[in-house]
Amino acid sequence: MGIGFWLATGWITLVLAAAALADLLPFAGYDETLAGPPQSGPSAAHWFGTDGLGRDVLSRVVHGARVSLGVGIGAVLLGLVIGGPLGVLAGYRKGVADAVIMAVNDVALAFPSLVFALAVVAFAGANLRNVLIVLGVLGIPAWVRLVRGATLSFAEREFVLAARVLGVRDRRILWRDIMPNVAVPAASYAFIGMAVVIVAEGSLAFLGLSVQAPTPTWGGLINEGRTLMETAPHVVLAPSVVMFLTVLSFNLVGDRLRALADVRQSGLEPSRQAEPLPAATRPHAVGGALLQVEDLRTHISTPRGTVKAVDGVSFTLERGKTLAIVGESGSGKSMLIRSILGLLPAGASRGGHVHLEGDDLTGCSPEEMRQVLGRRLGTVFQDPMTALNPVRTIGTQVTEPLRVHLGMSRKQARQEAERLLASVGIPDPPRMLRRYPHQLSGGMRQRVTIAMALSCGPDVLFADEPTTALDVTIQDQVLRLVHRLREERDMAVVLVSHDLSVVRQWADEVIVMYAGKVVERGPAEQLFARPRMPYTEALLQAAPRLTDPPHHRLRVIPGRPPDLAAVPEGCAFRPRCPYAQDRCGEEAPPLLADTRDHLYACWHPAGSAVAGAPEGAESHGR
Asked: What is the pTM of this model?
């Protein structure tokens, strides 16, 4: 939460307690004249001094908090009680209800709020009830918009649709599924709204249109003390400072609550250069390698400890080859890609070296990396709908890298974009360039992202599970497209996938990752024919086979992947391994050579005399 949040919460608690217990505190009465010498400064007897009539300023500030905070809380509750249900109704029902409610709401927002407040208070009378009602009514339109927006964002979520499929009544869906999610942004706005109302009430009191004397309010105290600014400035400063700190505290608390429900930064911006880890090995160039990764490490500092998301990964990739990276979720595949690209989350530290045709990318500045990303390194992400901006046309997004990196004119970029879309198999490119992402199918959107990744002719294309969200037919089309473009452009491809059948068909080399480390690496044909690491063997056994009999129990890997913030000693796969021995828990195995190109990290590899456990044997950790 941060120290600012707790200081703000402490101040709000102090002011609320003082207002609630004002009559019990050992202060003089707020309207008691000559409680001390008139216009005397702060002293032990009167901490905030006295005003022109000798009244204790601290007592008046504390009693004034009752009015200011009471109006703030009451007005916010009134706005929420009326505006909240209207916002939920508009956001959940949509249609006519939404159109009517929002039309009335827009008219209310268009009316000058200050003029309305002045007119109503002047006509109905300046008292606590009227001020509270006016400020509460003025807050209703803002509450309607806020709650409606939050309801709209959750009404189409999968968990709400699932509840509807189960036949759950709308009332129960609203109370059980939507309202708890709307409560967080509503709570944050409530604190910010109280700050706004306190300022508004203070403004009305300063103009003499709030609670009348002798009842004190913060705005009224400031108005009364302005004539004493030269002789007794403390009379104005005391309520002003208290009001300022209270409004600031409400804003800080509300902003922090909003931050808990609002992801403001992705944490993947290349403008923030990651702090390098100390080098563990000295890099050595490999002849003929397009991409060389040497002892790459990415560690992320968290409250639970250091997460070793990528821990000492090394490999080389030649031009015209496809390297596949496989492993369970959380094994470090996607983080490895981001580490190579330099797109690291906040708090991450990177070590090791990444060479692209001899150029060390780990030493590049953020500005230098911007020239590499897109031009020499292209990326296709898993979900094309989230990778494309929903409010920009396809043409705008495809032409942007052409204009930024290649300096093309608008006309040239448009022509090149049409050619790119045609090259990835999209029919009628001129019409497609005018469309928005939601108007395309999933397969077409993925083809667009591939065209964007290839627009500047990169040397290496990173495909992070590019076919997961697509059906089998479209998967095959997209993978054939990537393979064809790789051969036509003579580039290299790094493919991240869970689908071993895809890897077997399209990859030249395979890396198997577990707990942030490479546990097996080699040519795809050798690795699939003779897996040596028990984890690789378990992955292959877990893949369904067409030859399996009907109703055959699917094979699973027992246990779960380790916590990367607390990886066990020795081999990380030991608790799940059927071949594990005592040595596996004492010493982590290095990468050993089965052949010159086939490496594995295991003391008792599959197929050896020691690793003679039968298929389906229980793991060491069960």
From this structure: 0.64
Tokens encoding 503 = 């890897």
Rg (CA), the chain: 33
Q: Which of 89-103, 445-459, 471-485 has the lowest mean pLDDT?
A: 471-485
C-alpha–C-alpha distance, residues 130 and 150, integer Å? 30
Question: Edge-to-edge, what's the strand order for the sheet holding 322-326?
Answer: 377-380, 460-464, 492-496, 322-326, 509-514, 517-523, 599-600, 592-593
Residues 6+ apart with CB under 8 A from 228: 39, 51, 52, 235, 236
Q: Between these two residues, 278 and 527, which has the higher pLDDT value?
A: 527
- Whole-angstrom distance, CA of residue 306 vs CA of residue 565: 5
Residue 491 CA to residue 447 CA, distance in Å, equals 18
Q: Which neighbouring-strand residues pair with 311?
A: 297
Taking CB atoms within 8 Å and a gap of at least 24, the contacts of 114-117 are 117/200, 117/204
Local confidence band at 415 (pLDDT 50, 70, 90 cut-offs)? very high
CB 75 within 8 A of CB 140: no
DSSP of 26-45, one letter per residue?
S---TT-TTSSSTT----SS
d(CA 311, CA 326): 16
- Give how far Cα 344 sits from Cα of 22, 241, 387, 441, 490, Å: 53, 43, 17, 31, 28
4, pLDDT greater than 50:
yes
Contact present, 154 and 177 (Cβ < 8 Å): yes
Contacts of 157 (CB under 8 A, 6+ apart): none
Q: Which residues, 6+ apart, have CB-to-CB distance to 123 below 8 Å?
A: none
What CA–CA distance (Å, rounded) separates 512 from 324? Answer: 8
Return the amino acid letter for 366: P
- Helices and strands of the chain, counted as H and E runs: 21, 13
* Closest to 452 measured CA to CA, from 467, 463, 465: 463
Question: Which are the contacts of 96, defined by CB distance < 8 A and separation ≥ 6?
Answer: none
CB 133 within 8 Å of CB 151: no
Higher pLDDT: 511 or 285? It is 511
Residues 297, 517: Cα–Cα separation, whole Å: 9
pLDDT at 178: 83
User: Nearest Cα to 258, choosing from 189, 197, 195, 196?
Assistant: 189
Residue 518: the pLDDT is: 92
Tell me which residue of 136, 162, 42, 35 sits closest to 83, measured CA to CA.
Answer: 136
Check pLDDT > 50 for residue 621. no
- Delineate the domains of the chain, giving CATH numbers in brackets: 61-261 (1.10.3720.10), 291-513 (3.40.50.300)
pLDDT, one tens digit per residue, over 334-364 is 889 988 988 887 778 888 999 998 888 888 8
When pLDDT is cut at 50, 70 and 90, the band that residue 611 belongs to is: low
* Cβ pair 314, 289 in contact under 8 A: no
Could you list the beta-strand ranges (E) of 106-157: none
Q: What are phi and psi of 510, to 5 degrees?
A: -135, 140
Round to whole Å and give the CA distance between 124 and 423: 72
Which residue from 211, 216, 201 is spatially nearest to 246, judged by alpha carbons? 201
